[in-house]
């Protein structure tokens, strides 16, 4: 069975690729597309999972 955290991360990683491409096309800056890739593929799922864990009362002493 797949956990909620895995589904959230997978969804954001799959969304990060087209977002990074669109940022590259719109701006022509590789650095901005790289930061968009990191923000959407790494930062956003971490924030969403932390928020959802907090709502479920799963704050492990943090």
TrEMBL record:
Q: Which UniProt keywords apply?
A: Membrane, Transmembrane, Transmembrane helix
Q: Which InterPro entries match?
A: DUF7987
UniProt entry tagged with the keyword Membrane? yes
Transmembrane spans = 32-52
A single Pfam family it belongs to is DUF7987
* Protein name from the UniProt record: 1,4-dihydroxy-2-naphthoate octaprenyltransferase
Instruction: Look up and give the organism this protein is from.
Output: Haloferax chudinovii
